[in-house]
Design brief:
- The chain is an alpha/beta fold.
- Helix content is about 35%, strand content about 20%.
- The chain has helices at about 1-30, 35-50, 55-65, 65-70, 90-100, 110-115, 120-125, 175-185, 215-225; strands at about 80-85, 105-110, 130-135, 150-155, 185-195, 230-235, 260-265.
- Strands 3-2-1-4-5-7-6 form a seven-stranded mixed β-sheet, with helices on both faces.
- Helix 2 packs across helix 5.
- The longest helix has about 30 residues, at about 1-30.
- The radius of gyration is 24 Å and the shape is globular.
């Protein structure tokens, strides 16, 4: 009986030690693994709830669903992110809070977008967003440092790369060259988040100049041809009632267009 009791006690001690070891291993694995989706969502929610965000941005949140869109890109503190053709910098500000003081955001416009995106200068005035740097560039020669970016955002502007402007306001752009520049600037396995207004099936890029729309399947093929792999998509900005035959940035379809959301990884 004494031997049995001692054996039982030893067995219980061994089982307790085994459980503690398993718990320690699991804890270490969690600490070393990437942030879980829930953790990323919390950081995005914190960024959107930042007390300094302008009232106009808060109103826009209801239309653009930035929490759902940005969750796909996995933006984390310390990253360097380029918001290309950022306009007034709506997304640039959210990214500023997401990447934190050790991260960097490039608010990139060309001359035309600097004029159209009213408010970016006020947004950055008095060093309000110290980790955001504004750059006015020629899209055909952005001079982005190689392998310097963790992520790129193209939010409702990819179609503009194909815009042929007969009025002379918009420059002619080498679209393939722009995509190659972005691929070259991204770090290995960096991501590109793309949102744009949907064109009708089979229209490719033919509606870019007239309706400021582009076909989703055309976009996927375009980016694949320039070193990107599609890794995710979302229907959060879908609008089934959009007939895709009206202009996007004014008139009755303003804020009501069907938009596709795609995430690519640099291959």
């Amino acid at each position: 009986m004494i031997r049995l009791s001692q054996h039982a006690r030893l067995s219980a001690q061994a089982e307790g030690l085994r459980k503690r070891l398993v718990a320690a291993i699991l804890l270490a694995a969690l600490q070393l693994s990437p942030a879980a989706p829930g953790a990323r969502a919390d950081s995005i929610d914190d960024a959107l709830a930042h007390p300094g965000r302008p009232a106009a941005d808060l109103k826009r949140d209801a239309l653009d669903h930035p929490a759902d869109v940005l969750a796909l890109a996995g933006i984390k503190p310390g990253m360097t992110v380029a918001d290309v053709l950022a306009g007034d910098g709506y997304y640039s500000e959210i990214l500023s809070y997401l990447v934190g003081p050790k991260g960097h955001v490039l608010l990139i416009n060309n001359t035309a977008f600097d004029k159209w995106g009213e408010g970016w200068d006020a947004r950055l005035a008095n060093d309000r967003l110290p980790n955001v740097k504004h750059e006015t560039v020629d899209l055909n020669a952005m001079e982005l440092a190689p392998h310097s970016l963790d992520a790129v955002l193209l939010i409702k502007v990819y179609h503009d790369l194909y815009w042929v402007d007969t009025g002379g306001t918009w420059p002619k752009i080498d679209v393939g060259g722009v995509l190659d520049q972005l691929a070259h600037a991204l770090k290995p396995h960096g991501v590109l988040l793309l949102v744009d207004h949907s064109a009708k099936q089979g229209h490719g890029n033919s509606d870019a100049s007239t309706l400021h729309r582009i076909e989703e399947s055309f976009a996927i093929k375009d980016f694949k041809a320039h070193g990107f792999k599609l890794i995710g998509k979302s229907d959060v900005l879908r609008m089934p009632l959009d007939q895709r035959d009206e202009i996007t940035f004014k008139g009755p379809m303003l804020g009501k267009t069907d938009r596709f959301v795609l995430v690519f990884r640099k291959t």
